[in-house]
Design goal:
The protein has eight helices and 17 strands. It is an alpha/beta fold. It has a seven-stranded parallel beta sheet, with helices on both faces. A five-stranded parallel beta sheet has the order 14-13-15-16-17. A hairpin with a 4-residue loop joins β9 and β10. The longest helix is centred in the C-terminal third of the chain and has 18 residues.
Length: 329
């Protein structure tokens, strides 16, 4: 078996992550239109025939599966399996989602294969003779254009930038690898697993984000922000100072020291607009900023701005959006 593109699939308990749906639908379309041979690599536990069907519906013809119910998702394990498979099928391009998991394992894969790696890609133009990549650098202040000619490379792609593509559904050919058929580099032993309650979806997969800054004075005031988030089906994010105050989990911090996000809509509440935060939100399709300071820097990055007190505006905005939502049912 050989291929042009190897897509490393991420799933939660047998359900495809949104970002993996993006990657698979994009490369599934590429396979049909450009004749690119794509293989999806799925591994872990709770892998079912439904998961294979879901991947086939995205236009993927070939799946390599490694099922192990006792497999821990350690970076070394993921890297070892991916490297072992890549040496077998020799893809020109290895594609992963830019997630916490890949940030740990992707550099190990690139190092072991001795290939180039480019992270947090926001656009890709795949042609037969050249692959053009785009990503933001210097805190989102500059755009880097990368050309891949004949060299093998690994890339990670930011969620919510490729979109979902309608493809012809296929019944994929599944190659099931046996336990211990791929090299396993286990760096530690898990004695016990503690499962946390299912909360909001990962912020880098959210289509709508409500981000809060220091304009929110008390943690109890998150109630009104939660009301707005529920109306728009949004996920709450924040600047670093808000995380440091303990209002929001660090996994929902946006910016250079947090997550880079690219939602369809971002509503920014009481955020001044420091460059560190703007670097993480700059790829949002539409930004609405609300701040009582008319000279706040955040308005330079916003598509729409409202000058006013968030404590007065949020309840009004929530009420009016709820009305619209009820009318459109």
């Amino acid at each position: 078996m050989s291929c042009d593109v190897l897509v490393v699939v991420e799933h939660n308990e047998g359900r495809l992550k949104n970002v993996s749906i993006e990657l698979l639908s994009y490369f599934g379309r590429l396979g049909k239109d450009n004749g690119v041979k794509v293989v999806a690599f799925v591994f872990g536990d709770q892998i079912s025939e439904k998961l294979y069907c879901d991947i086939g519906k995205l236009g993927i013809l070939q799946i390599v599966s490694y099922v192990d119910n006792d497999l821990d998702m350690q970076p070394g394990l993921i890297a070892g399996m991916t490297v072992g498979l890549a040496k077998k099928i020799k893809p020109k391009l290895i594609v992963m989602a830019n997630t916490v998991r890949s940030r740990d394992s992707a550099p190990l894969i690139a190092q072991d294969l001795d290939i180039e790696m480019y992270s947090d890609i926001i656009d890709i133009d795949y042609k037969k003779t050249v692959i053009n990549l785009t990503r933001l650098i210097y805190g989102g202040k500059a755009i880097e254009k990368i050309k891949l000619l004949n060299q093998q490379a690994l890339i990670t792609i930011r969620p919510n930038v490729l979109g979902n593509h309608e493809n012809e559904a296929f019944i994929p050919k599944i190659t099931r690898l046996k336990i211990n058929e791929l090299p396993i580099n286990q760096t530690y032993i898990t004695k016990a697993k503690i499962t946390k309650e299912k909360a909001q979806k990962p912020i880098n997969e959210a289509e709508v984000i409500i981000a809060i800054g220091r304009g929110l004075r008390r943690v109890d005031d998150l109630n009104m922000v939660n009301d707005l988030a529920r109306v728009v089906d949004g996920v709450i994010g924040s600047t670093r100072p808000v995380v440091d105050m303990g209002f929001v989990r660090r996994s929902h911090q946006i910016g250079q020291s947090g997550r880079s996000v690219s939602p369809r809509l971002a509503i920014l509440l009481g955020i001044s607009g420091q460059i560190q935060f703007v670097a993480g939100i700059s790829k949002a399709k539409t930004i609405i900023a609300i701040n009582k300071d008319a000279k706040a820097t955040i308005f330079k990055s916003a598509d729409y701005g409202i000058v006013g007190d968030i404590y007065a505006i949020i309840p009004i905005l929530t009420r009016e959006l709820r009305k619209l939502k009820l009318q459109n049912r």
